[in-house]
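QA checklist item 7 of 12: single-chain prediction sanity check.
[x] sequence parsed
[x] length recorded as 490
[x] structure emitted
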Amino acid sequence: MDIILAGFNIDYEAIKELAKSSKNDEDLTPETISAAYARISRNPLPVNELRKISRREVEKARRSNETIVFGMGHSSVAEHAVFNIDVIGVSRLIVEEIEKFRLSSFTEKSQRYIHLENDFVIPEEIRTTEFESPFVETVEAQYRLYHDLYRVLKQYVFEKHKDLASDPGNRSTLEGWAKEDARYVISLATEAQLGMTINARNLELMLRRSAAHPLKELNNYGRRLYEATKGIAPSLVRYTKATPYEKMTRPALKERSSELIARHERSRTADEKPLATEGNVTLVYATPEGDNRLLASLLHGSSNLPMERCLSYVSRMTDAEKRDFITTAFMHMESYDSPLREFETVDLTFDIILSSSCFAQMKRHRMATIISQDYDPALGVTIPPSIRAVDMEGPFSKMIEKTEALYRRLTDAESPAAPYILTNAHRKRIALKVNARELYHISRLREDRHAQWDIRETAEAMVRLAKGVMPLTLMMAAGKDAFPSLRSEI
């Protein structure tokens, strides 16, 4: 056996320094690795020899990539070329679009830990129009209230947690609690930055979707992303223009949806009921007999029986046998262990109304299926309890009214940039489908006592509703902090 390091990502500035001493800086491209790996299926040479050939013949490697990726359609070859991208000065609204790409990696500037200055994006759709001045004035007013809230909330948090405040090591944590609640008043136009790791296949898809998006900021992001990467792996990124499918499908569906809803609204019946609801979280679907389905999957994965016979055996098991069998799957689990793959065979779908602050965290669970609607002021806003506790709900609500007045003016003018002015407190509705394995991950991370209160409350409601229909499957769902005692008890 030989395990050979084929490459790793290094800072591009270091690559440029290396290129100065290279006879041909075009040799410094991830395309050679993609080309070498593409040849594995048809060439008997060891893969390290194939890489050596590709490095010697870069142009030939590029032609090979183009043939295999675009001619034969083996797009996975492009996944071996990986880019690290700095994304600076984009709005929080656009970050939501960027982070929809589930097979890429993102680390984002956190509004919970960083004290924000008055940095925001003025959308191109608003610049030089009658709305620019009121837009800037409203965002600046939001920031003034943000700074006032932070000052008051910081004092409140330190007073409320005197025991923690006595240790200087807790200072940043307590300040963070004040920041994370003060940020609910700032807009989605607030500047953000993130680090992104993306392979060439997903880069090409991101470029197409950015070009198709109705917001000019995302169009500009796509153009700049293309300029930054186009010379690195040209044989792997070819189709970057917006396609009719990406540009026209969603608007067509919205138009047709409006027609259908108007036609059938009168025929709604009173028996349209979800499985269960808690606050803003509704469980609308769960795999029927989910516990039994999981049991059959565990039996199938641990035997040589066909699935239909496993289902038959489970139907004859006693409740005690079922509990004992599923408990066996958890017996050696620690808080850092994922449930077995069999837990992916049962699904749950939730309808959730959540704030922008909560969604900013929920969207990071990219293995879940998240169908996100537009922000809708009619859904109300989420006001942190601490803001009520310090008697700042009045100024907060007035700022929301001021914000929504401008939002209505922008929507009346049919400006696609209207959502930029909405705040982190404003809400949207999402449909979120998870399998039980992914729900465990959400539970471990978001029910933990260190999690931010908004998403913690949402995750707790999700898990309680899910346990109501799959009590055995989710018996070990808990935050990391609660997991050891729960495991001991069970």
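[x] summary fact logged: The chain is about 50% helix and 10% strand.
[ ] second reviewer sign-off
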